[in-house]
Amino acid sequence: MLKGTSLEVGYYRLLERRLVPFLAVTGIKPDHLSVLGLLISLVAGFAFAFYPLIGGLLTLVTGLLDTLDGSLARSTGQSRKFGAFLDSVLDRYTELVIYIGVWFYFYRQGSTSPAFYLTFLLILFGSLMVSYTRARAEGLGERCMGGIFQRGERIILIALAGIFNPLVNRLMDSHPGHWMSDIVLVVVLMVLAVGTNLTAIWRFLNVLRNLKP
């Protein structure tokens, strides 16, 4: 969704002009940022379970670190297969931990319906397949970067949902059990459940078309 847009270009330009030079001077390596992102995601997942606002803010930090490690690697000539593989694997764990935190938040509210579990299963499966289709396509020498709900967009959505959910709850004066309770998180989770799988299917069909003799 944001790939190739002026917003993305401006964001990376800001990183490379402001944050990357500072980090390069401190001697911090891209791999350090990848590991730090995972550690912060553990805190974000725990925070989401009890305080979605804090969980959302920390999730934004993990997203920043995820883009920052790549920018630092490119700017300092430290791009290596080791770092790329480490970053990709840790990204999967980072996202999973955050979703577990969101799941536990709803579990604490008493949400245990089949639809509740199905939504999270669809999100996890869709997120996995978005990543897998890209990895498998690139393993065959085919570029696969399209689709709306890539990892960056997913992280931003769930982070903003965590931030605005308690604010909307307070504005609506809704309480646990009320039909409007946690409406922001509910809507975003439904969007992710559908959007991630549509993105995976779009990538699947697009790569098949490109690979077809």
Task: Explain how this protein is built.
The protein is 80% helix and 0% strand. The chain has 213 residues and is mainly α. The chain has one domain: CDP-alcohol phosphotransferase transmembrane (TM) domain (Four Helix Bundle (Hemerythrin (Met), subunit A)), CATH 1.20.120.1760. Helix 1 crosses helix 3 and helix 3 runs antiparallel to helix 6. The protein is globular.
- Which class best fits the helix and strand makeup? mainly alpha
Percentage of helical residues?
over 70%
Low-confidence stretches: none
Quote the CATH topology.
Answer: Four Helix Bundle (Hemerythrin (Met), subunit A)
Just give the CATH class. Mainly Alpha
Q: What's the total count of β strands?
A: 0
Radius of gyration: 18 Å
CATH architecture verdict = Up-down Bundle
Oligomer: single chain
What is the assigned CATH homologous superfamily? CDP-alcohol phosphotransferase transmembrane (TM) domain
Short description:
The chain has one domain: Four Helix Bundle (Hemerythrin (Met), subunit A). Helices cover 80% and strands 0% of the residues.
